[in-house]
């Protein structure tokens, strides 16, 4: 069983299903931690609809979908913030597919895509309760920095210099498709 990673429209059926799973998980984690309850279904629907992902459309963005043994199992998005800086977002792997290197492959493919968009650095934000994400980013060479945005849910900000060497293609990933 292997991972394949390809660019896909942000509103494709696979991307939409993975966005719903991602948002449901991170929203429920926040509400359980702070209010002792899961996300209200009406609120969940409003927020999913509000976060369409249009900012991940070409020519200044890209959504990558990772498939494990052919089945959609994870995402990573990248979008240009300015000519030199890309933002990594929507990094997610379905719980049943975690522990199989998918997140690292998705992030690596997103870094390649960011460089193809012209970025020299990549930034991201995450929450304090997403300890798995913070550990992943640290393991992949991201360093924690001062805030680069005012997102009310962001508690940790990271950055990685991408350099200007030729763009490598990660094993088991095709970020150019």
Automatic annotation (TrEMBL):
Q: Does the keyword Transferase apply?
A: yes
Top-rank taxon, per record: Bacteria
- InterPro entries from the entry? Acyl_CoA_acyltransferase, Bact_Acetyltransf, GNAT_dom
Q: In this record, what's one Pfam family?
A: Acetyltransf_1
Keywords, alphabetical = Acyltransferase, Transferase
Could you tell me which residue ranges the N-acetyltransferase domain spans? 17-163
Q: Which PANTHER family match?
A: AMINOALKYLPHOSPHONATE N-ACETYLTRANSFERASE-RELATED (PTHR43877:SF2), AMINOALKYLPHOSPHONATE N-ACETYLTRANSFERASE-RELATED-RELATED (PTHR43877)
Q: Identify this protein by name.
A: N-acetyltransferase
